[in-house]
Write a structure and sequence with these properties.
This protein has seven helices and five strands. By secondary structure, it is α/β, with parallel strands linked by helices.
């Protein structure tokens, strides 16, 4: 114990820096765990669609949605979701899709306020395509 106190006294600035870094790391991890929604691989998303009748919500713009989307996906652009979320069924899980899964977190946060059970498609529509999954074009 004496050695530890001596070390802390002689290297106070290093000890303080280490303490601050550990505190910041703990805070960042706590925020990330509270904020982040569960991400689903395309395979897990497909299982959820087939076995739990999950709704696929595509939050990309309508013109981008028409160039290729997941079968039976519902299109509600992210900027319209606040006004149109009532069209969604709360009893079903929702898989949120965007271009690369970066905008999906905003949609999850919004839907969480209204007690929806929402998940993010990892990698977005790009991850879906990279996994060789089919898309429908209008």
């Amino acid at each position: 114990m004496q050695d530890i106190l001596s070390l802390l006294q002689h290297h106070a600035s290093l000890s303080m820096t280490l303490t601050i870094l550990l505190i910041l790391l703990t805070i960042v991890e706590f925020i990330r765990s509270k904020k982040g929604a569960q991400q689903l691989s395309p395979a897990l998303a497909t299982q959820m669609i087939n076995h739990q009748n999950a709704t696929v919500l595509d939050v990309r713009k309508a013109d981008v949605f028409s160039t290729g989307h997941i079968v039976d996906a519902v299109s509600i652009p992210l900027d319209e979701l606040q006004n149109k979320y009532k069209k969604l069924d709360k009893s079903k899980p929702i898989i949120i899709v965007c271009a690369t899964s970066t905008e999906s977190q905003q949609a999850v946060n919004l839907l969480a306020k209204y007690e929806f059970k929402a998940f993010i498609l990892a990698g977005g529509i790009r991850g879906w395509k990279d996994a060789g999954m089919p898309l429908v074009k209008e």
